[in-house]
Structure formats: structure tokens, C-alpha cells
Amino acid sequence: MPILLGENRYGKAETHVVRVTRDGPCHGIKDLTVSVALSGDMAAVHLSGDNAAVLPTDSQKNTVFAFAQKYGIESAEHFAILLAQHFVASQPTIRHARIEVLETEWERIGEHGHSFVRSSRETRTALVHHDGERTHVVSGLRDLVVLNSTGSEFHGYVKDEYTTLPETHDRVLATAVSAQWRRAETDDAEIRAADFDGDYDIARAALLEAFASTYSLSLQQTLYAMGTRVLDECEGVCEVRLALPNRHHFAVDLSPFGIANPNETFYAADRPYGLIEGTVLREDAPAPGPAWS
Amino acid sequence: MPILLGENRYGKAETHVVRVTRDGPCHGIKDLTVSVALSGDMAAVHLSGDNAAVLPTDSQKNTVFAFAQKYGIESAEHFAILLAQHFVASQPTIRHARIEVLETEWERIGEHGHSFVRSSRETRTALVHHDGERTHVVSGLRDLVVLNSTGSEFHGYVKDEYTTLPETHDRVLATAVSAQWRRAETDDAEIRAADFDGDYDIARAALLEAFASTYSLSLQQTLYAMGTRVLDECEGVCEVRLALPNRHHFAVDLSPFGIANPNETFYAADRPYGLIEGTVLREDAPAPGPAWS
Amino acid sequence: MPILLGENRYGKAETHVVRVTRDGPCHGIKDLTVSVALSGDMAAVHLSGDNAAVLPTDSQKNTVFAFAQKYGIESAEHFAILLAQHFVASQPTIRHARIEVLETEWERIGEHGHSFVRSSRETRTALVHHDGERTHVVSGLRDLVVLNSTGSEFHGYVKDEYTTLPETHDRVLATAVSAQWRRAETDDAEIRAADFDGDYDIARAALLEAFASTYSLSLQQTLYAMGTRVLDECEGVCEVRLALPNRHHFAVDLSPFGIANPNETFYAADRPYGLIEGTVLREDAPAPGPAWS
Amino acid sequence: MPILLGENRYGKAETHVVRVTRDGPCHGIKDLTVSVALSGDMAAVHLSGDNAAVLPTDSQKNTVFAFAQKYGIESAEHFAILLAQHFVASQPTIRHARIEVLETEWERIGEHGHSFVRSSRETRTALVHHDGERTHVVSGLRDLVVLNSTGSEFHGYVKDEYTTLPETHDRVLATAVSAQWRRAETDDAEIRAADFDGDYDIARAALLEAFASTYSLSLQQTLYAMGTRVLDECEGVCEVRLALPNRHHFAVDLSPFGIANPNETFYAADRPYGLIEGTVLREDAPAPGPAWS
Lengths: 293, 293, 293, 293
Prior knowledge:
The structure is a homotetramer.
Chain A: E1 3-13, E2 15-21, E3 28-40, H1 43-48, H2 57-71, H3 76-90, E4 94-104, E5 107-108, E6 115-117, E7 123-130, E8 135-148, E9 173-183, H4 188-192, H5 196-213, H6 219-233, E10 237-246, E11 249-251, E12 265-268, E13 273-282
Antiparallel strand pairs in A: 2-3, 3-4, 4-7, 5-6, 7-8, 8-9, 9-10, 10-13, 11-12
């Protein structure tokens, strides 16, 4: 039975570019790690090592640096759109580009115009797909670590023969939020007009606020509240995906030492951990196409 | 416009179980890290925090340990199948189980019957999906780090305006292989009869041999040769997916110091790196269903 | 020639304790990872496995949790002092205790009384030694990542036969600051009276301010300015040790593409990196004893 | 009170050099990550940014690559000695060099002359100090992960008020060995004549054999046996330092499920962990000087 080449892609991963703007005494800084993945007419290179259709990953890296200088970085998403469209438009053998960006945010040190500190813990993310006709954009963040010291319960669950967990009416709820949100537009002009930085600020605030203000009977309930809140507050966003590892904080049993522990002293466990993943979307969300892949 | 709950799953991630067999003077050891993800009738828990359909992730962890003792661990795949079928069969609210396993292999120290050393660098992987009717099994490995010190070229590629890379007729080719292979069977009795350990040994050897013996004009060509070789040698396997980061080794320019470098001294770079991903499959491979998700 | 047992110590490492204070609507939170290392009369356990002098590491872990509940956590340093003195005072076989603490700081989410986010990137550290008579305390931080986008030069250095680096009069200077500062007091009552939280805030601000305001001709000069500033502003501190990895940001040569790069687009390299380590101390600093070990 | 500059050093860290030997159909490969730290007349650069005494870290990196090509890599230790002596001998402002090397070992794939796989899990280490007169060499390894599935007990220890650990007469004993051993010679000609590769093979085998064959009443006892065995078998080695994290494997209590667990099913915990550190040395071992710093 014949053997076939199936789906494939290739590109330069993790080009770390830092772009400084020096328009006046106050510099600006954008710090992106960019991964490019291209696909198209790649049968020959796989079957015989004929590279005639292959734009080297080294050239892709050069393009990232050149574009950073030439066009600046309006936002992670805008920069990724520019790159994706360039590769598909300029290379006849490339049909599809996927650009993934991780952004580290820097904060100014006091009043100093050109000194910065990495103060936020989370990483901002952007994922762009472009196939020559449509552009899908997913924005997000990861490692936004949050904790509620009360206001969380867990009971009323299934008890099977392997269940030993006692029900609780007061527990610590902590997680490292990974969230991604998809814009509905895929038309070129429309998607370029989106305010991705505005979305980011609103979505981040919505995630924090929903986490903090939800009285939680399960982490799933909190997840759904967080996703709903992002949709409520970000008009152009049609779908949110969340992954919430449950960073278990177990109240330590100090009774062997004659010490009461009224939910004040916890052992913060690493592994294993619960992992809650879910999607919240508008009823009229357009099909995602390759947006999440 | 109404907001909906979309796809979701939950479970206990990274339960690290070590199972010793003590049947005689020579012990055996299996070292697995197991992640469970379940889905089913989970609307209520998201919308209102009603946990009536939720089997706690703590119970899932207990099940991993209990099954390790009760049934032993024939292979990572067999153990994952057992678990997947158990959750779906025993819980009316659970429609689908996904079990992912990372296995660390231990080697006996000399002739000592109960002393072991972790000698291999790679991690063995297994991924099982079960929905009550069909069982999909994907096996694999990651971090199998290999290097050819010659026998690799790269030229004849596209030169666009951002291309500066010189062509080469002799380079180091190195990568950390991630490979996964899918068995064709999804029928319960058939898939349980598969020899996953046999597959693993054959596939690992095939990957090494294909990497070493392919005179390479591109990493894509090597990837395709590796995938084809696994299919050639593992009869029951219908599809192979590979991800090969190109661990660039750049020959250092020592000419400023009057020293020739005939491809002997290299700088091993970390980032950025090329990333080549591809699928090789039989023409008659059945549709994968959820196997890779 | 006889073989001897030399220096040794043992203890429980990385006990992750989270202590919540619930005195009113606004909770407080302390998040510490505590490592204990004890030494004393440990010849027998090494030579023959006689554990009569050994307090189990499991008991040390229990002590960390019990003390967190019993005494609360005034500061990382105060908590470490309590533990160190306890082990030496309560165990006749223990002569010396070393307690190391890593602290993660949490920030309140908006006005929510019991919701927190990990916003700072750096980790606070404390290191305490106690031998029954004297207590040495070293405080610090790590992974405080900072960057100056200008105001840094590097020239006038030695040129040997392996030097190819061009001199520069404008470069990015970036580093991940590790700093530790030692209090002069070792008397028990005196050291307990120290304001470690106050020191921390002042030292952190001094490090940032000195980094930002030093026009730098070398990273060593910046290091010395940072250490001096901490001593200037923290009265009770007698010695500062700094480790500053030089996170190289190389201006990308875009001339092959006809693009000028006036120090705006940089490649942020991972490895190799310069590493600058240095100590700044008062002339009358008392001998450190075991403080840094 | 005046402020002084104390101890300091600087250099290029983590230069990753791979050296291939291509003398015939069978290539050889050495894979080292080299960190250089130099000290000497460095007051001016700290106090005023005057770099006249500073050999750039970039030149140090170049030297690592140039020496790899020029002299080849006989062993990690020999290469480090060459570098250390070069920096001190060639730079009047450098009084002391510290060279640290991490080595990754590669194994040939089958009979292929120029194909390699990283098969061992541990990392080989070398640490060299040279001050123009004396050369101290410490060799070692880290992350040699070993496990005994029986033959280990723990009882007879101190029970204080925080002790809850039950005594055990059969437990799993597992650790990730970090070991370093010091050669006695510091004379230049003598130390260059040492057989570091021979030492490594003997020491590694001795560590494994001692771990496997010691019936253990405490991890300290195993540590001492391992150190002693290295000294017994490596004639030129005068001191061994070991750090053994206790990778706890807790037998899971399956009695709630009516399942016996005769020490067969374990939960492998990550944190916290016991950490046992100790030194074993010959009575006539010369003073270590800076060897371990």
C-alpha cells in the first residue's frame, strides 16, 4: 500500500526581537518572540530533498528583524499579520502562514525615559493564520497567576468507589490562567482595523474581575464566568478558550500537634493537579477555520 | 446574542505512579506520569456550579494508583486503555476519556536485581481516546536527540530579498526527535491485542537508523525518510507524525585568528531554530477521529 | 590512609507553605518555599546508618507548617530565624541550622479583600544561619529583569589576539539582577528587631534607581553603583553581593537589505552571556562567618 | 564609613562548543558548555568604568572556539586547564581563572561512523582553578538518577513533637546523584598527566555499584559508602562531595478501596524532598584552596 506525505509545515521558531523606539527623550520598547510556520508546495523537498520551493528559515528570521525596523511594531497581532501576509504574497510556493508571538511587557522605571523593568508575570500571546484570502487572529495571555483565599466551595460531586475526597465549603482557589480570544473578522481590512491592545487591556481586566468576584462552587463555574465576562466586554471577540490548572492548596492537618488550622496554613502542591479546559462563544460566532491550529 | 458553552474537558494531570513488580529476586519497574481528561454532560457545572455530573479529579488520581496495583502495567498504552474504558463505562455522565502517559524507562544496574538507573534520555509517550465504542491509540517518544556530523547539505533553495544564508554542501544535522505513531485498529479487542512494546522498540530503531543512513539534502527529506521507515517496519501503524527542531550547529569563523575550521568546531545555538513538522501515512489509513487531539 | 567524613548537612528542601491571615474582610497572604539544612553530630548515621541523632526531614517539614500556623509569618527572615533557633535549641544533636526561603509576592486584585494576583516577576530571598550563639541574616532578590535602551557604552578594553568585538558608544544594557544584602547584627535580640520588609523595599528601589540613573561604561561600573546605593540607603546593611548576567541585545545588521538600523532593532541572545559578579561592603563590616554559605 | 569593592569576577558563561574530529570514517564528538570567570586588577572598571584591564567576555568566547579547533579537546578537564592557564599567562591584569565545563556525552548509533545519539542522562562536569602557580581540578557528574526498589530501611530516628513519620523496614530509595571529586595534585605538570577520563569511568561505576550494593539504613549511610568507594577505586582522588536529593516514593494507601499494597505502587513526589549533602576525604588530603569555589 503506498505511503503518502500528509500535513506539514516548517519555519523559524522563537526569533527574539526587541524593537526600541527613540522618538524623543522617552523611549518605547516591544519585546517579541516570533515563530513562523509556513506550508504550501512542499512535496518535492520531502520526497527528494529538492529545495526549490523552500524559503530558508534563516530568511524568515531575517524578515522578522527587517520588518521590525521597517514597519515598527504596532502590536503583536499587527506585526504577525504583516509577516503572514508577506510570506504568502511574496512566495508563490507558500499557501499558508501561521505566526505565533509571545510578548513580554516592560514597565518604565519611575520617570526614567529609557529604563525599564519586567514587572508583569504573564506573557501576552498572538496567533495569526493567513492563507491569501482570510486572516484569523487569536490573542491571549498565559501564566496570569491568581488566588482567592476564600469564596470557593466544592461538594455535591459524584462519589464512586475510588472517591475519598471530603466535601468542602471553604477552600483556596488558585490557578495560572491561560486564555485566548478570537476576533470574528477575517477580512483583511477589517482585521487590521481592530484595536488589539484595547482588547488585551479589557480582556485581562475582565479575567481578573470575574475570577475575583465569582463565588465559586467549581473551577468550571469560574471558567465559564471568566469567558462570559470577556465576551461581554470585548465586542469584537466571538470565542474564548481557557485552560485553568487547579493549583491545589491543601489545608495542612496540624491536629497531631494540637494546633487548629482554620483554613490558614496550606501546602501548595505542584503535581498532580486538576486541569479544567473550556470554550465560551457567541451563538453567531463564525466557524473558526484554522484559527486555533 | 446568546453566549454558549463550547468544547470542554477536565481531569487530573500528571499523576506520577511508579509500579514495582516483586515476583522474585529480580524486580521490575514501570514509571508513568498519567494525565486524565474527561468530557460529557458538563453543562450544569459550568453554568451553575452544580457538580452532580462531576467525578472529582482526586478520584481520578486514586483510580490511577488503584489500577496500577490491581492490574499492573502491561504497557503505557494498555494501562491508558484500561483507564479510559473504566471512566466511560463506570460514569454515565462521562462520554469520552483521553489518557496521556509519559513513561520514563529504567535500566538495571549490572546484575543487581532491584537497582535501576535512568539511562535513556528520551521519554516514551502514549495517548488514548475512548468514547465507549472506539479506542484510538497513538504511541510515541520525545527528546530523542541525534546528530550527524556530516552527510548533510542545504542548497538550491529560494533566495528572496531577505536571504543571506550561504549554501552548504557539508553541515552538521542535529535534532531532538518527537515522533508519534497511530495504530489503525480502533476495535476494542483488536487494539488490546496490539504489541505496543514491540512497536516501540521497532519504531525507535527505525527512527535512529533512518536518521543515520539518510544522506540529507534537507531536514524535510530526513523527516520523510524517518516516517516512511517506521511505516515500513511497523505493520499495524498507519500514520506517523514528526516534529524535528533543527538544532543549528554553526561552523565558527576562525579566520580572524588565522585558524582554518574545516567543519570541526561548531557553535551550538539554542534559539531561534528551524522547526520541521510533517505527517507520513498509508494511503488506506482510516480517518484519525479524535486520535491526535 | 584512613578515610574521613568531612562537612555535611541534611534537611528538607522546598517546603511550599502558604499562610493566609483572615483577621477581617481583607485577607493577607504569605507564600514561602522553605529549605532547611541541619548539621551536628552526624558521624554515626554516615558510618553505620544509626539514626539516633537524626531528626527526620519529614518532621522538619511538619515544623515549617506548624510554625506558620502558630506564629504567623512576620517576614521571610523572621520566620527563618524562628525555625533556625528552634532546631538548634530543641535538638541536642543539631549544632547549626541553615534556613533558606524563597518568597513569592502577591498583589491584591483591585478592591477585592481576598483575591490576589502574582504580579511581580522577581523572587524575594532570605538566608539565615544560626549556631546557638549567633544568627546571620542575608536578604535578597533574584530575577529582577531590567533594561536601559541607551546610556551605556563599552570601549577602551584589552584587545588580545582573539578580540574581534567592535567598541560601542551606545548599546542596550540589560540584566536579571540577583542581589543579596547582609545585616551587620548577629546578636539574637538585635537581629530580631531589624525591619527586613523595610530593607527590602528600600534595597529594591535603590537597585532600580541606580541601574536607571548610572551612565554606564561597563556593567561592572553599574554593579558597583547598585551595591553602593543599597549601602547608602540601608543603614543596617554592611555588605551587598550582586550577580548580573549581561543579557546581550545585539543590534541586527540590516544593511544587506538596504535598511539602516540606528540602534532600534535588536536580537536578544540567550547564550553565551557575560556574567559579572561582585561584592560591595562597608570598611567596618564584621566578618561574615557562615552567612553566605 | 568608606565603602569598598570586595571579591569580584567576570567572564563569559555557557559558551556551547561542539568539536568534531574527522580523522577517518569514524568521527568523534565532544560537546562542552564552558563558563569562564576571571579576576584580577578590576578596581578601576568598578569604580570608574575604565576598561583598560578588562579582556572582553566576547574575546573569551572566541578563545574557547579557537582553542577547541587549535588544540582539540582531550578531556573536559584538560581543555579547561588550557584555557585557565592561557588567560592568566597572557593577561597581566588577570590573576586567577575559574573554568567550569558541562559535558554532554554522545553515543554512536550502531555502526554508523558519523551518527550519534544522546543516550546518557547525566551530565559530566569539570571545574578548574588556576592562579599562575597552582591548578586545582574537580571532576564530577550530576543527574545520575538511580533507584533501589528494596534494601532500604529508616527507623530509630529522633521523635520530637512534630514527628509523625512511621518507621519503615522496606522502602524505595531513589536519588539524582550529584558527585564531585578532587584530584590531589596542583602542580602543573602533574595535573596535566592525570587520566580524567579514566577517573570518570571508574568513579561513575563506583557510585552505581556502591548505591546498588549498600543495604541502606539511611541515605547518609549510602552517601558515605558511595564516597568511600570512589576514594577506594580512584587513587589520585583525595576528596569527594555528594549531594543526594531524596526522591521520595510514598507507598500509596489503597486500603480505602480494599486493595493491599505490599510496597508495589508508589506516588513519586516532587517537592518537598530531603537533601543529603556530605564530604568524604582522605586523612592526608591537601587543603582544597579555591578548588570548590
